[in-house]
């Protein structure tokens, strides 16, 4: 069975080997049919601490690594602009 892969933006990298990633999706409203943006935040394992805030990353499902960590960073798709 293939593991799900999602793309999102890193919103926090304060923890060691962990990043918080916001993943956005679109759903249709049940009654009115208007498309709405919904955001989910996932904690993801980042073994090398490569992802920084603002980076666009790809996540893949993994075994439970802690109470809230069930995703792992596969690659950094796009780096954030640094000042």
What would you note in describing this structure?
The protein has strands spanning 5-12, 18-28, 35-45, 56-61, 69-78. It has one domain: Nucleic acid-binding proteins (OB fold (Dihydrolipoamide Acetyltransferase, E2P), Beta Barrel). The mean pLDDT is 96. It has no helices and five strands. The chain starts with a strand and ends in a 5-residue tail after the last strand. It has a five-stranded mixed beta barrel. By secondary structure, the chain is mainly β. It is globular, with a radius of gyration of 14 Å.
Give a quick rundown of the structure.
By secondary structure, the chain is mainly beta.
Ordered list of secondary-structure elements with their pairings:
Blueprint: E1 5-12, E2 18-28, E3 35-45, E4 56-61, E5 69-78
Parallel strand pairs: 3-5
Antiparallel strand pairs: 1-2, 1-4, 2-3, 4-5
What is the number of E strands? 5
| CATH superfamily caption | Nucleic acid-binding proteins
**Discrete helix count:** 0
CATH topology: OB fold (Dihydrolipoamide Acetyltransferase, E2P)
Name the helicity range. Answer: under 10%
CATH class: Mainly Beta
Q: Measured on Cα atoms, how large is the radius of gyration?
A: 14 Å
Number of separate structural domains: 1
Strand order of the largest sheet: 1-2-3-5-4
**Contiguous runs where pLDDT drops below 50 for at least 5 residues:** none
CATH architecture: Beta Barrel
Percentage of β-strand residues: over 45%
Q: Please describe the biggest sheet, giving its number of strands, its sense, and whether it closes into a barrel.
A: 5 strands, mixed, barrel
Q: Give the terminus-to-terminus CA distance.
A: 42 Å
Q: Strand pairing plus helix content: what structural class?
A: mainly beta
């Amino acid at each position: 069975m293939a593991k799900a892969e999602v793309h999102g933006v890193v919103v926090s990298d304060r923890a060691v080997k962990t990043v918080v990633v916001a993943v956005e999706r679109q759903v249709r409203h049940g009654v009115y049919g208007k498309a709405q943006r919904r955001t989910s935040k996932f904690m993801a394992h980042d073994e090398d601490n490569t992802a920084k805030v603002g980076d666009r990353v790809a996540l893949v499902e993994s075994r439970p690594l802690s109470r809230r960590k069930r995703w792992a960073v596969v690659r950094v798709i796009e780096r954030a602009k640094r000042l």
